[in-house]
Amino acid sequence: MRITIAALALLVACLGTVTANDVADDDAGYVAELEVGQEFIVAPLPDLDGKPRSVRDYEGKKLAIHIFASW
Amino acid sequence: MPGWHEKLKDTGIQQIGIIQEQHPDRCRLFMQWKQMDWPILVDSLNLLRVEKVPYTILVDGDGMIRYVKPKDADLETFLKTDYKDDSLAESADRKAPDAEQLDKRLGTLRKQKLEGQMGLEEHLALADQLVLWGGEERLDAAIEMYSVVLDANAGVSRAWFRRGVAYRKRFDSERRRETDFASAVSDWEKALELNPNQYIWRRRIQQYGPRLDKPYSFYDWINEARKDITARGEKPAKLAVEPSGAEFAYPEKEFKEGEAETKPDPEGKINRDGDKLISIDSVPVPGRIKAGEASRVHLTFSANAKLKAHWNNESGDSVAWVDVPDGWSVEKHLFTLPAGEGATDTIERNIEFEVRAPKDAKAGKVKLTGYALYYVCEDADGTCLYLRQDFEVTLEVRS
């Protein structure tokens, strides 16, 4: 019986962790599989002046999106 | 990027950059230097959850990804093809919330009682939105919301990373609290412990960390960029935060220990700064190291604004001395605090140095001790003094 309870506790703990890592997996629209055939994210990000911009602002245009850092 | 910039010129393709760094103003200078003028979107929080940089994605006019890391031949096909994506569902437009919406949401979530893990998504999302759109004045609220998430579930690695970003942002703002930089580093370390393969997160710590850990230096191009831009007759874009020594430092393969130096005020005779005209903060990066590893210590000396204290630049150099425990190495013991301009000023002084734990260091907390000797004046017409202040830097050796 004790073992069962321990196993159950472990199971609950594991389930807890799974939920934990799934928290807000959507991140309000910012997460997309960045893979061929997927839609690129449309949620806005600030530009260098802090104004919201999204790829939606360029609808109808072919885009080259460079993901980088200047460091 | 510059390679792509040339290739895509005059093709009709719109280029967009999405940057993964803490300080976007540095990218502005970079773009000016490289004479590239396409829009930059700032993803300091790593909302896209990319794990590495750089790479390019080609997206058609309907928003569908056609190539990731394209080759030249892919680019040709992409240019020639007329894409029609009837299959793509019309996704909802997402607008950035305004201040009123953010505050309203914050009010609602503050009243909401958490039940287990329920509702954490909303807290995390609001925290992100507060950082993105809330301005400096809502960084406190963003940190509060990330903390709600982390208190309920310490396993959400990206909440640690993002709270670290928020702390560092506040550190760079006028709302700075003394512990903000240390809190940022500690959060980033926690995030990386949970997700050690996240290179973008790792870079945030490396940025301020010891040279031994660096694969290459960070913003070493900045001085060259400024020179080139000035030579073109332009004014280099201003940086909100100048890079620190760690960010300019080149990687090193070996730890260099300093030569013998003469200890100032060896008997401790100089009067102590009892009023704390100068406050001293220390942040080791990383704060937790293994035996044999190095850490880079950032020390900040700031003149106490409440006491109207200011540095006296006319009497001589202000210095700091650092001691390390037996077996530990330090690159230098004696540092001159960089002098400000004019007779007096209130600009903070920063120094950085690297220490290394011995290979047989035992796990636990370790204290480095040191002291600063400085010329400081009280109030505007107050007395100018030469004072000493002792300080400690706490590091942790982990097993």
Which terms summarize this structure?
heterodimer; A: 71 residues; alpha+beta; two-stranded antiparallel sheet; 1 helix; 3 strands; B: 399 residues; seven-stranded mixed beta sheet; four-stranded antiparallel beta sheet; globular
Task: Itemize the secondary structure elements and their pairings.
The complex is a heterodimer of chains A (71) and B (399).
Chain A: H1 2-21, E1 45-46, E2 52-53, E3 63-68
Antiparallel strand pairs in A: 1-2
Chain B: H1 2-8, E1 14-19, H2 24-34, E2 40-42, E3 55-59, E4 65-68, H3 72-80, H4 99-111, H5 120-133, H6 139-152, H7 157-171, H8 180-194, H9 199-206, H10 222-231, H11 245-248, E5 278-285, E6 288-290, E7 294-303, E8 310-312, E9 319-323, E10 329-330, E11 334-336, E12 344-345, E13 349-356, E14 364-377, E15 384-398
Parallel strand pairs in B: 1-2, 6-15
Antiparallel strand pairs in B: 3-4, 5-7, 7-13, 8-12, 8-14, 9-11, 9-14, 10-13, 14-15
Structural class of chain A: alpha+beta
How many whole angstroms does the radius of gyration of chain B measure?
24 Å
Question: Biggest interface, and residues per chain?
Answer: A-B, 49 and 77 residues
Helix fraction of chain A by DSSP (H/I, runs of at least 4)? 25-40%
Oligomer: heterodimer
Catalogue the unreliable spans of chain A: 1-22
The percent of residues in helical segments of chain B reads 25-40%
Proportion of beta-strand residues of chain B: 15-25%
Number of helices of chain A: 1
Task: Report mean pLDDT of chain A, rounded to a whole number.
Answer: 71
Distance between the termini of chain B: 41 Å
Radius of gyration of chain A, Cα only, in angstroms? 21 Å
> How many beta-strand segments of chain A?
3
Number of helices of chain B: 11
Overview of the structural elements:
The complex is a heterodimer of chains A (71) and B (399). Chain A is of the alpha+beta class and 71 residues long. In chain A, 28% of the residues lie in helices and 14% in strands. Chain A has a two-stranded antiparallel sheet with strand order 1-2. In chain A, a hairpin with a 5-residue loop joins strand 1 and strand 2. The N terminus of chain A is likely disordered. Chain B is of the alpha+beta class and 399 residues long. Chain B is globular and about 80 Å long. The mean pLDDT of chain B is 91. Chains A and B meet through helix 1, strand 1, strand 2 and strand 3 of A and strand 1, helix 2, strand 2, strand 3 and strand 4 of B.
